Amino acid sequence: MNIISIGYIGFETSKIEQWRSYGPEVMGFQIAPSPSQDPDSLYFKMDDRRNRITLHPGKIDRLTYIGWEVRNRMDFIAAIEKFKQHNVDITIGDQELCERRGVKELIRFKDPVGYQHELFYAQKWTPRSFVPGRAHGGFICDERGAGHVVLMIPQESPELTDFLRNVMEFEWYGWGAGKGKTGFWRSKLNDKTSHDIAYGVAPGRMGVQHMGIFVEEVRDVGETYDLVRKKDLPLMMTLGQHTQDPHMSFYHFNPSGFAFETITELEPWHGDPFELNPEIMSVWGHEIVGPIIGPSVGAPEEVYPEQFGQ
Ligand SMILES: [Fe+2]
């Protein structure tokens, strides 16, 4: 399945007004005009695509969909065939949904844990349309997309591993450092970063733990860090450099209670000729100064009551 990256991602939030100031002022996102079909939602641009991160008003702060981008229409058709071969339930996005997401065509499906995914090609794009919400050097999107996500799952799931490997055709990257309960995966066509998505076991709970956002310059990490400190926003981890990736980053909590990891690449990713077994997560920094799992993670019946509630 010729997936490039997470092209767009959507969350539901009870704090949309906080996001309206936080997005541009802290993260440097640009507020894009909301499509006429969805005037109450907040659409953020990170580059010349029409939207990368969308916040939809709702009662619960949670991830609502991950939009995987395939290269083109032919890859989209092939992906549909693949889902059918594996008896995955897919629904075809109607014209209205495609307009909301700003794409030519999309399908919707769930992974075996119950997270909602979408797959699309051809998102709306206007060259030189991106103007950051504050002075900012810009985000690395293009082939990297909106960034990476780390999701929690209530228990280990062999069905999920089978789905990611054999249906989505992701590349396995490895386990995270520490107790080894988080598995990292990369889209087939991603040769720029080690992972697009990771699933970690948090017994009895699910939800988004963090999202990684790539910025162009060290300065953008530093200036975001300064703003987070100045506004006294809660930190998860201080500045640091990861062991497995040549990344410098820090983690703080956004209004929805999951972390944004603001990342700069110190050098290009070296690839993964063999699987590493890191004994430490970071070579320096990344001091844990807040909870590792925020309020966005909870019992499945609390986070997704319509799916797991009584
Ligand atoms: Fe990350």
TrEMBL record:
One of its GO terms (molecular function) is ferrous iron binding. Keywords: Aromatic hydrocarbons catabolism, Dioxygenase, Iron, Metal-binding, Oxidoreductase. The keyword Oxidoreductase applies. Belongs to the extradiol ring-cleavage dioxygenase family. It comes from the Bacteria. Gene3D superfamilies: 2,3-Dihydroxybiphenyl 1,2-Dioxygenase, domain 1 (3.10.180.10). Residues 5-122, 145-265 form the VOC domain. CDD domains: BphC1-RGP6_N_like. This is Biphenyl-2,3-diol 1,2-dioxygenase. Its cofactor is Fe(2+). InterPro entries: Glyas_Bleomycin-R_OHBP_Dase (IPR029068), Glyas_Fos-R_dOase_dom (IPR004360), VOC_core (IPR037523), Xdiol_ring_cleave_dOase_1/2 (IPR000486).
